[in-house]
Amino acid sequence: MKDIRGWAVQPASWFNFDPDGVVYCVDINTAYRVARDQVRFGDQMIWKMTAGDPIRWVRVSDEEQINVVLCQ
Questions:
Q1: Number of Cβ atoms within 10 Å of the Cβ of 14
Q2: Could you report how far apart the first and last alpha carbons of the chain are, in Å?
Q3: Cβ distance 44 to 60 under 8 Å?
Q4: Closest CA to 41 of 6, 15, 10
């Protein structure tokens, strides 16, 4: 069975990925919608799930900005 959790969203303030505290999403559009909904609690980080460690992909803030994370 294919794992459909390709993306994850969690508060950016957590810094480290928490597999038990994220909201898993099927695609980047869903992840962005979840992040925009949760930004009322602070900036959100969208993570790209991989076969290894997840990668910080994009930070979503209340100012309608998307800040792409270029390095870890």
A1: 13
A2: 30
A3: yes
A4: 10
Contact at 8 Å (CB) between 44 and 11?
yes
User: Tens digits of per-residue pLDDT, 13-68?
Assistant: 998 999 999 999 999 999 999 999 999 999 999 999 998 999 999 999 987 655 55
Query: Which residues are paired to 56 by β-bridges?
Result: 47
| Contact by Cβ (8 Å): 8, 22 | yes
Classify strands 44-48 and 66-68 as parallel, antiparallel or unpaired.
unpaired
59 and 72 in contact (C-beta within 8 Å)? no
DSSP 16-63: S--TTTSEEESSHHHHHHHHHHHGGGS-EEEEE--SSS-EEEEEE-TT
